[in-house]
Amino acid sequence: MPSVETPVVYPDSDGLPMADNTRQFEWIVYIKKGLDVVFVADPTVFVAGDLLWYPVEGWPDLRAAPDAMVVFGRPKGDRGSYQQWKEDNKPPAVVFEVLSPGNTPSEMTRKFSFYERHGVEEYYIYDPDRLTLTGFTREGQFLADVPTMTGWTSPRLGVRFDLDADGNLELFRPDGRRFETFEALTERAERAEQLAEQAVQRAEQAEQRAARLAELLRQQGIDPADLP
């Protein structure tokens, strides 16, 4: 009997949670959604969060799920996983990891080796508990330390990194504007809506005053249209 080749399955989930705690989750969302905004107008930049990346066809156990990653030269869109051989063989150029108490040194060493071996150009790690920020950029076949991350601007993203006085991560878009949380965006949108409503009310009040004035003029025998 002819042999039937069993198809290789690339699971969309590794069974692990996206984050170990609420703090880690909030920082992952902050980074991922901020990157979405940076590249919202560029259809050739794919941004993902906690998406399994399979770099080599036929090796489903060889995978990683960066907390956030950016791929240049690939279209936006939904994916169950990032199978590199189906994506013009383009690896993520930039990856982010947000540490939690559950991350062990051996785990982070494996991740570093994976990203270094499979073509990541920039790798950034933020620890919201220890308030530390670390970065690496590619030099040939290796990822080398960024000496000072405070004020560092990513060569590929154009995003500037900083830590505020309390050690919280701050990211700035290429136009200099700060990444915003969902709450801040919502507050700003509500404030803009309130200002717009107030402007409409003022316009209506001005129109009503003008109508009353015109009526008073007509009562005095003056046609408002004749006024200069």
From TrEMBL:
Q: Which residues form a coiled coil?
A: 182-223
SUPFAM superfamilies in the cross-refs: Restriction endonuclease-like
Q: Which domain of life is it from?
A: Bacteria
Q: Boundaries of each Putative restriction endonuclease domain copy?
A: 45-148
Q: Which UniProt keywords apply?
A: Coiled coil
Q: Please verify whether the record's keywords include Coiled coil.
A: yes
PANTHER family attached here?
Answer: SLL0995 PROTEIN, SLR1095 PROTEIN
Q: Spell out the protein name for this chain.
A: Glr3638 protein
- The species is Gloeobacter violaceus (strain ATCC 29082 / PCC 7421)
